[in-house]
């Protein structure tokens, strides 16, 4: 157990709909990262937040947005869903200590768009 | 942008054999991380390497941070069926403008162990 939690575990929805994925980082971790992993593919970085502020953007579609709240949990919002958005979505958190930073992943949310 | 070349892409080995995989980059990284991912699960951190030249073991796993800071390898000794999965390397460096860290992931090595 990495200490990073994600809900829901599974999500099935229809095209055109909007969903929200939730992530709680490990206690004390200020950075949250979101990744998308399509079937048999690698991890695609979407977006990073640090202490409530957006810090980096990767290949995130305009239909997707995210935020990090004062209690440091984060939500990834996916709207106008398309079949191709079906994937595993992972959240990771990291903490900087002694000049090093280590990233830990949550169990993921499997999104199926029908 | 930065890329990580991870090889091999996949491996089929016999139980008991040793496994070796590596990642190389044209970029210099501060930290190298190795993860294992089981199907449908999140990547699990296996080993983190923080210093160039560092050699670290975790049970049957050994990883090294290349002296040039541009590469890393992971060895698994005496493989067992539960070693099956996808192994990802990740290089970490300080982001230029944000003051935080960014992670670049390799494309993964798919390991299958034949009993």
Q: What this model shows, in words?
A:
- The complex is a heterodimer of chains A (114) and B (115).
- With 114 residues, chain A is mainly beta.
- Helices cover 0% and strands 56% of the residues of chain A.
- In chain A, strands 2, 4, 5, 6, 9, 10 and 11 form a 7-stranded mixed beta sheet that branches.
- Chain B has 115 residues and is mainly beta.
- In chain B, strands 2, 4, 5, 9, 10 and 11 form a 6-stranded mixed beta sheet that branches. A 5-stranded antiparallel beta sheet of chain B has the order 1-3-8-7-6, with no helix packed on it.
- The model of chain B has no long low-confidence stretch (mean pLDDT 91).
- The interface between A and B is medium-sized, with 26 and 26 residues.
List the helices and strands and how they pair.
The complex is a heterodimer of chains A (114) and B (115).
Chain A: E1 5-7, E2 10-13, E3 19-24, E4 31-37, E5 44-50, E6 53-57, E7 64-68, E8 74-78, E9 87-97, E10 100-105, E11 109-113
Parallel strand pairs in A: 2-11
Antiparallel strand pairs in A: 1-3, 3-8, 4-5, 4-9, 5-6, 7-8, 9-10, 9-11
Chain B: E1 5-7, E2 10-14, E3 19-24, E4 31-37, E5 44-49, E6 55-58, E7 61-65, E8 71-76, E9 85-94, E10 101-105, E11 109-114
Number of strands of chain A: 11
Strand content of chain A: over 45%
Strand count, sense and closure of the main sheet of chain B? 6 strands, mixed
Number of helices of chain A: 0
- Net shape of chain A: globular
Q: What does the largest sheet of chain A look like?
A: 7 strands, mixed
Helix/strand structural class of chain A = mainly beta
Mean pLDDT figure of chain B: 91
Report the end-to-end length of chain A measured between terminal Cα atoms.
Answer: 31 Å
Categorize the overall geometry of chain B.
Answer: globular
Structural class of chain B: mainly beta
Per DSSP, the total helix count of chain B is 0
What fraction of residues of chain B sit in β-strands? over 45%
Largest interface: A-B, 26 and 26 residues
Report the order of strands and helices of chain A: EEEEEEEEEEE
């Amino acid at each position: 157990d990495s200490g990073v939690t994600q809900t829901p575990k599974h999500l099935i929805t229809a095209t055109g709909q909007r969903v929200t994925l939730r992530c709680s980082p490990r206690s004390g971790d200020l950075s949250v990262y979101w990744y998308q992993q399509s079937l048999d593919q690698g991890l695609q970085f979407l977006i990073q937040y640090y202490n409530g502020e957006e810090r980096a953007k990767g290949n995130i579609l305009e239909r997707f947005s995210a935020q990090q709240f004062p209690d440091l949990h984060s939500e990834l919002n996916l709207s106008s869903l398309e079949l191709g958005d079906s994937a595993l979505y992972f959240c990771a958190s990291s903490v900087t200590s002694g000049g090093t930073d280590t990233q830990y992943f949550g169990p993921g949310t499997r999104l199926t768009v029908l | 942008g930065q890329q990580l070349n991870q090889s091999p892409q996949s491996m089929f080995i016999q139980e008991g054999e040793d496994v070796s995989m590596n990642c190389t980059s044209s970029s210099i990284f501060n930290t190298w991380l190795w993860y294992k991912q089981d199907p449908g699960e999140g990547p699990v951190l296996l080993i983190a390497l923080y210093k160039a030249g560092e050699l670290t073991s975790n049970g049957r796993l050994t990883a090294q941070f290349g002296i040039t800071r541009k590469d890393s390898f992971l060895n698994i000794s005496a493989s067992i069926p539960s070693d099956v999965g996808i192994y990802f390397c990740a290089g970490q460096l300080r982001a230029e403008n944000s003051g935080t860290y960014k992670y670049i992931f390799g494309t993964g090595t798919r390991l299958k162990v034949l009993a």
